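Help! Submission page says 'invalid entity' but I think these are all valid:
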Amino acid sequence: GAGVSQSPSNKVTEKGKDVELRCDPISGHTALYWYRQSLGQGLEFLIYFQGNSAPDKSGLPSDRFSAERTGGSVSTLTIQRTQQEDSAVYLCASRQGSGQGPHPHFGPGTRLTVT
Amino acid sequence: AQTVTQSQPEMSVQEAETVTLSCTYDTSESDYYLFWYKQPPSRQMILVIRQEAYKQQNATENRFSVNFQKAAKSFSLKISDSQLGDAAMYFCAFLAPSGYSTLTFGKGTMLLVSP
């Protein structure tokens, strides 16, 4: 079946512009995660959605970052007034949910470059 | 909160040899999952192996096996008969499936494989 998809795969934007990154999880997966990975670094947790519960936003680095998940499926990560330090790969993952379930499946990521 | 520690930023191995990557974690949970993910230069995160904490038997997937020591909170990955295609960044990850749980990653180990 289809895996997690993300769009765009690459995005170049000017400093100060807003960007939207999209994640399409695997159908039926109730949990969805966003991570940021700077060049040569590990994965930095941003936000976690689980079903209809309030999202865990504890990883968002500033109020310029926000995310939503519509209809329990597609998620959009928005970065307002982008800064050069926002340049990174943004990874999305989904899994079946709490309790018994398989491993989180990752999308291919969006590489964001802020010039 | 859980923490995952990978103490080896980089490891080297020759083809056909065996290498072990280390991972330790800290948690107060009794039930959880542990994973090893591989991230090649394509940046796609690929699941290598998973371990459920309630299972005493160590997981094995072909040339990949783990040494899971629950009391010591240790979860090392052994790669046997190393191949050039094994060269990648390897991440250890922790997931507590009970309730509302994020996925916590270590900082990663870069594995270099030489002919």
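Support: the input was valid. A stray whitespace character was the problem, and the output above is from the cleaned input. The interface with chain B takes residues 33, 35, 37, 41-43, 45, 48, 50, 53, 56, 89, 91, 93, 98-101, 103-106, 108-109, 111 of chain A (CB under 8 Å).
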